[in-house]
Specification:
heterodimer, A: about 300 residues, alpha/beta, Rossmann fold, six-stranded mixed β-sheet, 13 helices, globular, B: about 425 residues, mainly alpha, MetI-like fold, two-stranded antiparallel sheet, elongated, binds adenosine-5'-triphosphate, binds magnesium ion
Amino acid sequence: MAETDRVKVKRRELTETFLEGKNMSKVYGMGRRANRAVDNVNFKFRRGEIVSIVGESGSGKTTLAKMILGLTSITEGQLELYGQPRAFGTTAEKREYWKNIQAIFQDPFSTYNVFSKIDKVLLNCIELRGQKDLPYAQKVEIMTEACSFVNLRFAELTNKYPFELSGGQMQRLMIARIYILKPKLLIADEPTSMVDACSRATILDMLLKLRDEEDMTIVFITHDIGLAYYVSDTIYIMKSGQFVEQGTSDEVILHPKSDYTKRLLSDVPSIYEPWDLTSDDLLSEEDEFPTAAGGAP
Amino acid sequence: MKHRLRTTFQNTNFVVGFSILVLLLLLTFVTPLFMQGSPLDMVGTLFNKPGNYVNRMGVIDAPKYPMSIEVASIRLGAAVSNDEAKQMLEWLEKSELDVEWKGLDPEKDRAAIVELFLANYDDSIRLPGTSAYRKGFTRLYNKVQNLLSADGYVVHVADPDSESGYREVGKIESRDFTNVKDVPARRFFLLGTDNFGRDVFHELISAIGNSLMVGLIAGSIATTIGLLIGLTSGYVGGWLDNFLTFVTNMFTVIPSFVILILLSYSISSSSRSIVVVAFVIGLTAWPWTARSVRSQTLTLKNRDHVNISRLSGFGTVRIIVTDILPYVLSYVVMAYILQISSAILAEAQLSMLGLGPSTTTHATLGLMLSWSMQFQAPLSGAWWAFIPVVLSIALISFSMNLMNTGLDQVFNPTLR
Ligand SMILES: Nc1ncnc2c1ncn2[C@@H]1O[C@H](COP(=O)(O)OP(=O)(O)OP(=O)(O)O)[C@@H](O)[C@H]1O
Ligand SMILES: [Mg+2]
């Protein structure tokens, strides 16, 4: 497999299958209006792996994520944790499950309860870890550490409300939350689509750091196949609720088999095509886009 | 939250509405301290008009101050109506006596007309016309005959020892005056009395208090039920949602006023106290609160902050209380205010149908209206028995709606 010059995250031995989905489907509605949002998908996530699920809007990515998270019921099929059907009946079982599997969502502005202070978010995590009765000083220590992991200062955040933060800060705080919880699997549902480019890079970095330091499995959901190639070990391409292609990122990106993947890939460079750069203000950037400049008048 | 509260109290609409309500409440708490007796004491007689009532015997007993004020014309003005003055002019004209009656205005020169009429009236002059027509003038003459006399009245008391059976105790000269404050027995009826002779103002104040209580009880019940049902049905979903939505729809489809009438009707009138009626109103008014809370909860529960809370392992109740309730609270407060004002109206409507609280010990705005209708206050021209009540209902509704508009402006981002 040709190694590319991208900043590829260092490869790991990926052996242990951690979470496995078997013939999973989700049907919304009933009868003639039934909508198979997720249609018979199979997958295997391994420890320490970064998996990207790529698909366009409405392809069922979020629905799949919610099924894995246990936020919505699974219509058909099952989910196995370490080869055992997941125990997800009682409240205690659910709590145990959520200690292992957590998520970051797309829109930071809807991820926070605007009526409670930021501290509450982190304190709730400590509670979920079973350390509710820890002295407050120690809790502050944990929170400070988590915040510094995402380059935030707890002292500046304490007693603030979420709307006093920027979108990027909110998303980083969500990562701090994950840092406290240290789940085995993190589902990041388009975590960077609502933040600026700078924050995007920082957030991706932090996710990679989580994987490296905590051996976390990260399921990275995105519609940006380029981003998926940049971060992931394995890529699943999703279309109308089904996986049309799956494999290591190099296999999928460099040697796509499905027409749909090829089309997705052909869409990526299209924005750099000459006609897109003929306007005057963009011509000055020709140095950065040598291929594009070649076609420009 | 604090910030919201501050902006709420900076909103003119809200502040005006709130002040009116607070004033009304103050009125209901403070006025009873200055009133004698219970609001439902039957002190007067049927529809006494508003005013200061003094005891007539008290007037006789009180010190008298002779004053040089022309009293006769004032008395005349009060005793002779416009039509009667016209009648007198007519007689003067038709009798063809040589008197200067032309140019006299029945409105302004009433005293002069009466004087002229009294001086010239003669039974023996036969006017053309029916005898009933002529008798009308005789009657008029007898009525005003002693009005102009300045002799005054002589007051007697019964005295068996005296020859005539009466003993003179005083004389009331036509120019005698009495300071009203010297009359010990008097009563001021700001809004007159109602059909039972109760002081309408006193009754009204206590009725406003009772009606607000009906509104508060009914509104609280309706809002609590609506909130609970809306939150559970929206958040929990599934068959529970189907069931609760079915119940809610049933209550919405059958007009709640019909249920209200049936419910009130089925409760025997003896046990229909104010509180019971408030409960009945509250029990029928919740569906629309439930519906809108449910639909808001449905959208809220798909917000990611709820998902984060679920992923943090929190139970349903905790999520509803911390993650859903604060978001619907501003709406619920608005709905609560509207529930209160519509419950007050519902009580009035029920009472008009005779299905309101059946009580002889407490008044409500609805009961006051119903009483004044039953005793035909509008026909008797007793406006004081129902207009102030209608205005009070309107004022309460108005203040509540103002508060609601204000809250809407504060909390609804599209109106800001
Ligand atoms: N709660 C729901 N009830 C009914 N249908 C739903 C629900 N949630 C999602 N769907 C449907 O399922 C399909 C997949 O939606 P989903 O949100 O999983 O797409 P997605 O891949 O995450 O899209 P995006 O990139 O826009 O987030 C869509 O057709 C959507 O209309
Ligand atoms: Mg999505």
